Amino acid sequence: MRTGQRLLSHVLLVLVLFGVILSGCAGKSVGEMKAERDIDGLIELLASYNNETRAEAVIALGEIGDSSAINPLIDILRDEDQYVREQAAKALDELGWKPGNDTENAYYLIAKGQWQEVVELGEAAIEPLLEISKYDDVRETAVEYLVLIGEPTIVPLIQALKEGSSSSIREVAAEVLEKIGEPVIEPLLESLKVDADWYDRTAALEILDNLGWEARSLSTGTYLVKNSYSGDGKLTVENGLEWDTVIILSKSDNPDVASIGVYMKANESYTITSIPDGEYILYYSLGKDWNKDTGKFSIVAEYECFEETFSFERGTDFWGRKYHTGYEVTLYPVAGGTAETEDVSEGDFPKLNQ
Asked: What confidence tens digit (pLDDT) does each residue in 27-44 have?
C-alpha cells in the first residue's frame, strides 16, 4: 500500500514539475520576448485573439527593428482592430518599409487614417476599402470614401455583390451602389441579364427598385399562347414566390411546342381553364422584366418542369354524370406536397414565339 502511495506521489511530482516547465515556456511576457529578441515568439503573438497582445507584439517588433518581421506586419495592416493596424503602420515606418504597390499602399494609408490619400489611389483602393469595411470601427468611413471614388467602383462592387463574399461586404457593396445612384442601373441590369450564377440576386433587385427601375410585366392571366378552347380541364397555379412566372403546358408527345402559356405575377394565383383532353408536361420559368420580343424574361431565375405529367380528360361516369380533370399546384414547397420538379435548360424550354 505504501509502495503504491509513494509511486503515485512521484508521478504527481513529475507532472507538477512538467507543468511548471511548460508554463514557464508559454508564460513569457512581450517585454521578456523583446528583451530576448525573440522575433518568432512575437510573430506568433500576432495571431492572438487579444487585441492588446497583438498591439504590444507589433510595437515590440518595430522597436527591435528586425526586417524578418516586415511581411507579418504587412499582413497585420488588415487587422480587425484599428489601433493594431495603426501600430503596424508605425512599426513598418520604423523598419524603413515602403509599400511595394498601390494595394499595399492603400492598406497602409487606411491604417494611418490618411483617407483622402486613399481615395487618390482610385481603383487600387477599392478592394482594400471594401475588405476593411467589414470591421465596424471603419465601416462608415470606408463606405463614405468608396462613394467618393464613384463610378470606378461599380464593376468591382457588383462583383462583390454577385459572389459569395461575407454578408457584411455584400451589405457595404449594396449600400455604396445605391448611394452612387443612376450610373449603377445599366451595368447592374446587364450583369443580372447575362449571368444567372449569382450568390443572391435579391439585394441587386432591391437596389434597382430603390433607384426607380421598373421591370416590364404583364397582368396575371395574360395568355401568351392558347391553341384551343375546346376542353374542360382546369389547372390552378399558386405562385407564392417573389418572381413573376410563365406557366406552359406542352403535349407530352410534342414537348417543344407550347399548347398553353400564361403569365403570372409574383405572389398571385390563377386558374387556367378550357384545357383540351390530353397528357401534358407542365413547365414554368421564373424571372423579372418580361421581353415580349424575345418571349422570355430579361432576368431569368430558373427554368423548371414537373417530373410527373398531367392527364386531362372529360367523360361520363357510371351514373351518367359528366366530369373533367382538375389539378392544383404550387411553385414552392408545401408540407405534405408530393409533386417534384427538375431543372430544364433554356434550350429545352418550350418557345413562345414560334
From this structure: 688 889 988 999 999 999
Q: Which of 300, 298, 303 is nearest to 216 (CA)?
A: 298
Nearest alpha carbon to residue 57 among 74, 81, 40: 40
Cα 188 to Cα 33, 156, 183, 299, 302: the distances in Å are 53, 11, 9, 11, 19
- At position 136, the amino acid (one-letter code) is D
Three-state DSSP state, 288: strand
How, if at all, do strands 278-291 and 296-306 pair?
antiparallel
- Supply the pTM of this predicted model: 0.76
pLDDT at res. 324: 79
How far, in Å, CA of 73 to CA of 65, rounded?
A: 12
**HSE-up of residue 347 (Cα within 13 Å, Cβ side):** 0
DSSP 53: H
Residue 183 amino acid letter: P
Query: What single letter denotes the amino acid at residue 63?
Result: E
Residue 231 CA to residue 285 CA, distance in Å, equals 24
Cα distances from 161 to residues 56, 188, 243, 263, in angstroms, run 36, 10, 19, 30
* Contacts by residues 310-314 (CB-CB < 8 Å, ≥ 24 positions apart): 310/235, 310/249, 310/279, 310/280, 310/281, 310/282, 311/278, 311/279, 311/280, 312/231, 312/233, 312/275, 312/276, 312/277, 312/278, 312/279, 312/280, 313/233, 313/277, 314/231, 314/232, 314/233, 314/277
- For residue 343, what are the CA distances in angstroms to 177, 286, 308? 32, 12, 13
Beta strands per DSSP E along the chain: 222-226, 233-239, 244-251, 260-264, 268-275, 278-291, 296-306, 310-312, 314-316, 322-324, 326-330, 341-343
Distance of CA 262 to the CA centre of its chain: 32
Map grid coordinates 521578456 to a residue: 32
C-alpha span between 211 and 232 (Å, rounded): 45
Mean pLDDT value across residues 186-198: 89
Half-sphere exposure of 220 (CA within 13 A, CB side): 15
A 10 A CB-CB count for 225 gives 20
